[in-house]
Amino acid sequence: MQARSERPEIQDEPFDLKLFLRSLGSQPGVYQMLAADGHILYVGKARNLKRRVSSYFQKTRHSPKTLAMLAQVARVEVLVTHTETEALVLEAQLIKKHRPHYNILLRDDKSYPYLYIDTSSAFPRMSLHRGTQRGKGHYFGPYPAVSALRESMVLLQKAFRLRTCEDSVFHNRSRACLHYQIRRCSGPCVGHIDEKSYHRDLQDALRFLQGKSDEAIRTLQQRMLAAAERLDFEEAARRRDQIAALSKIQERQYVAQAGGGDFDVLAAVEADGQWVVFVTFIRHGRQLGGRAIFPQHPDTARGSEVMAAFLMQYYADREIPGNVLVNVLPRAAASLASALGQNAGRKVLLEQPQRGPRRRWLAMAVANANEALRQRAQRADGGRRRMRLLQELFSLDRLPERVECFDISHTRGEAATASCVVFGEDGALKAEYRRFNLRDITPGDDYAAMEQAVSRRYGRLLQEGLSLPDIVFIDGGPAQVARAQAALDDLGIREILLCGVAKGTSRRPGLEWLHTTLWTQPRQLSSGDPALLVIQEIRDEAHRFAITGHRARRSKARQESELDSIGGIGPKRRVALLRAFGGLRGIRDAGVEDLQRVEGIHAELAQRIYAHFHARGKGA
């Protein structure tokens, strides 16, 4: 796709709207509304740029959203494309990149997990996979959540007993693991099954995952009967158990499918001004589950607009099935289908079914969307109650919208890590959590650590023009609060309320002291006070997030520093050693000959590594 700018890139020239509108052509393309400071307010596509852009500045009635946007527009830029389909694709790319305030935005950027069967080894492995599908093997999915995929993997392990262990573990085992003992693996690592038999189980698994479940079960039934006839009752029992496991999966996931193929079913539903799009995944005749996504949108958004914006942003970097079913046809549905097909490299059918199995799938997705809205409303009620309690505790003029909390974690000053967790009316906003690897402070100086974390956090928010919280909790007493306040003062921030949450002398929950400049004296709430329970929940989440990050950083630092101290080991060899032996303990336990088997480790270096861990009497 090629696009060219209709206007030369001269940012400092005065913008003449009338001259600009007269110069516009009638080609398809994308237009961008820009504010005076240069940031993009809105991105749109047009079949006819002159007619579409001019319509914004004619004396016609606009929605309040459009009027608010036009009041901020300082200039307009356009990009001409060859076709309307190209304009659709470019519009989605620009929205995803710039996230303009007045566009409908998809806030769920998480990649979905896939079931991956790696066929690059003699005994292929079954695993969870996210991201680019470059490996040799088979990918099945997407699944709506990791939990749904893990549940399916357990059932498949019971049925086909494929291995799930890492190659470094598989190649270094001397006896079968627990999965073999509980009959979820056939034990290829120690020779309990030969390659031919393992591949036969693998083919059965692939047939089942590809939707040929009846064929797979019939094959297993034939093997069960054959084993019984030759009096191999152990083999017959194993096949019987496989059939039972596969039947259970069928009961859980089967969908009566007409016409074959893979489907995504999208239902857009609105309640009280909030839109949700529920996506259901159907692959090879089995429902893999679904996910509710709540796009950010203007108050006046219509269903066709929400669906159109959602489709192009959602499928910009995801697998597109051959069939996409929707309950609301988007604007320019034919062009959208063409654009989706262009991204997928094949034809994509976009339709609103009216009868048959596909209509029933759609009704199920609509029901799930309504349930997601109901649950979100319940969570919002709980979040508003949490904020009302904090408003009453601190006697605030208005309901707080955003609360953050900091905690510091370290081991005797080593690998000091700060956490910042964020809560809003919807509860914990985990996508906005942040960790800070603290540097250039005296080990164990929690006061300096807190000041640095607060300074870095809010310095960044100011730099990026993002919203500041109403209340910030600090895990600590008046000294930590004072250092945090000093950081805010240096940044010129006055509107944040700081509150320290200090543990009592016994450090038991319920005996915390609250320190804030709003009060002349610290306060200790009763252990059952609802406001204190809210503060404890937020503080405990900050502590959990801090200690998790600290432990990961400490473990990484210890592994890397131990190996980096050995001459001749750089990043590539370190990674190769850790992969081969599964960690530092495995390297310590390895002999010289074992070390030499790792790529890049020659005899002299292997001897040096071995001497490093054993010459000085180092233990495991």
From TrEMBL:
It is found in: Cytoplasm. It comes from the Bacteria. Pfam families: GIY-YIG, HHH_5, UVR, UvrC_RNaseH, UvrC_RNaseH_dom. InterPro entries: GIY-YIG_endonuc, GIY-YIG_endonuc_sf, GIY-YIG_UvrC_Cho, Hlx-hairpin-Hlx_DNA-bd_motif, RuvA_2-like, UVR_dom, UVR_dom_sf, UvrABC_protein_C. One of its GO terms (molecular function) is DNA binding. One of its GO terms (biological process) is SOS response. Keywords: Cytoplasm, DNA damage, DNA excision, DNA repair, Excision nuclease, SOS response. PANTHER family: UVRABC SYSTEM PROTEIN C, UVRC/OXIDOREDUCTASE. The UvrABC repair system catalyzes the recognition and processing of DNA lesions. UvrC both incises the 5' and 3' sides of the lesion. The N-terminal half is responsible for the 3' incision and the C-terminal half is responsible for the 5' incision. Interacts with UvrB in an incision complex. This is UvrABC system protein C. It comes from Acidithiobacillus caldus (strain SM-1).
